[in-house]
Write a structure and sequence with these properties.
Length: 81
């Protein structure tokens, strides 16, 4: 079980919730090489504790990255150790 910290994109409030860590295979230029990317799956639909808007859903995997090529809301999450 992993706990994730994620910023609400509506009000900016930080929320914490539990997620499952899953690995998603990504295609690679080299056929023999498997690239597995860690993603995080919310256990249930999570709502911001401040404004009540949905911030994460089980059908929507969360990818943690600091890379700038992902300017979506995915970047605004981090793992709580
Ligand atoms: Zn909010």
């Amino acid at each position: 079980m992993t706990r994730l910290r994620m910023k609400c994109s509506h009000c900016g409030c930080w929320n914490r919730f539990e997620v499952d860590k899953v690995f998603v295979q990504q295609s690679s230029p080299e056929p023999k090489v498997k690239v597995l990317i860690p993603m995080y799956k919310p256990l249930k639909t999570e709502r911001c504790e401040k404004c009540g808007k949905v911030i994460a859903e089980p059908k929507e995997l969360i990818r943690i990255t600091g890379a700038r090529e992902y300017p979506s809301k995915l970047i605004r999450a981090c793992v709580v150790l």
